[in-house]
Amino acid sequence: MSEYRAPLEEIRFALETVGGLKDWTSLPGFEEASEDLALAVLEEAGKLAGEVIAPTNRIGDEIGAKLTEGGVVSPDAFKPMHQAYVEGGWPTLSADPELGGQGLPGTLSIAVTEMVTSANMAYSLMPLLTSGAIEAINAHGTDDQRQMYLPKMIDGTWSGAMNLTEPAAGSDVGALRAKAERQADGSYLVTGQKIFITWGDHDLVENVIHLVLARLPDAPAGTGGISMFLVPKYHVNADGSLGARNDVRVVSLEHKLGIHASPTCVMSFGDEGKCVGYIVGEENKGMRNMFTMMNHARIGVGLQGVSVAERAYQQSVAFARDRVQSAAIGAKTRDAVTIIHHPDVRRMLMTMRATTDAARAIIYRNVWAADRAHKAADIDVRKQAQGEADLLTPISKAYATDIGCEAASLGVQIHGGMGFIEDTGAAQHYRDIRIAPIYEGTNGIQALDLVGRKLNMDGGQHWQALIAEMRAFADGMGGALAGQKAGLTAGIDALAEAADTLFKNGFDGIVDTAGAAVPYLRLFGTVLGAYLLCLQAAEAEKRLTSGDGKPAFLKSKITVAQFFVEQLLPSATALLGPVKAGAASLMAMAEDDFARH
Q: Taking the model in full, what pTM does it have?
């Protein structure tokens, strides 16, 4: 397996062009987030990811998390690695300064998280879920809960876990059966079982803080009757010290396709009737509260697609530059060359790079919108930014995880037969990332969210504004991108027509809209990715002209954008057909006819 090298030049350029780097200091609370500080943070994060975290990736895959009588045990190599992560202050990067955080932009934090995730996806899930739990408690908890739990979660002493799924309630969260009963002292006794709980128990921290969805005895049916409860693994005394063990335990660990070092737990609450929890927010508002954590996690999961695609790409480039096989097509000599000279290998490598860069740009823009929504002084700016962040979140999650799987699969293909052999490490990337389109809401659910909620939000003004922005840019395209103007314009036209079609469907066309959801999201993600890559290419051309930056890197940005528009965008533009076709052929076959006779 090749080493991971943080793509600092690419990350910096993405932050400058779509992540608002030069505008961070203009937002209240981010005055100290200068470019110099950001670059220093990225440089150190790159070292941590490449030198400390990345070497544990293969170890974690081979050893995995183990369940013992005392709980879940992580591979020995994870302990000093996590200690280095905590001692470096990395968990505190974007957290609230009043609770021990550094208060830096979320866009900077997401860039650091990308590197950590590329280095070891299985490990990265633990700080990802912890930061999501921090957001949920900070947004909906009491002042006492914030002061008691958040400082140690922020500094990495404790971790957080999200407990939604049950054996009979997967994506249909409203069918959950976990219960909570009020006690005279204001606490609740929680009972029930949860499955697929990522990092639900482990030995890297002193305490695990579970956020658990459960139903009160008098709660209404469905998602409107769900409440959220904070359930610590160990009780916390008034002085902040740890008390006795709570009545929560790991029943088993799942045996998974990938992310072996990330313990996926079956958790049992209240086997002895003594599991004490504390309500977070109002009764029966738990689903709304959990979405605070879930939306954060969805962007983070989308980032996993970028991160694994980046590492698979780096490894594939190294292999393609080293593997000698066959003569170059069209060459006068029959001397064998390295496979990077073969057009089809070039096509695969370019596809990996272009889709990775596009997905990265989408996510960075998404998080920059979230930063503005939280910090902008003007309320109208905050409102517009929140609308954009909401629109982009399902695209960030679904498009990026799809391309993560596709890039990792191409990585296996580039390695040929050796890609199917575990020794190269190419297979691990594919095994690890395959879960990402499934958890935190399947990509089909993300597509339904996009067409069912986000498309109609605020009268459609947010997608309309984004399309108008893309049109204005395409109209002015020239220079090195002149040849891509028609292709990008065709993509924007297809996206606009698809959006308008679904927007007008209304309730009578709801099945048609649902049937079109996945191709529409892919169309949206691809057109948006093409636009952002062209935006970056235009900036690269300006810098080439002015002599600002490394010519080789800037030229590569132009080439990647040209390739994306010419080779990848046309197939996405063709998705307008399935979007407009409706769901008749999807729903026509009788259920029994699906079975082979």
A: 0.96
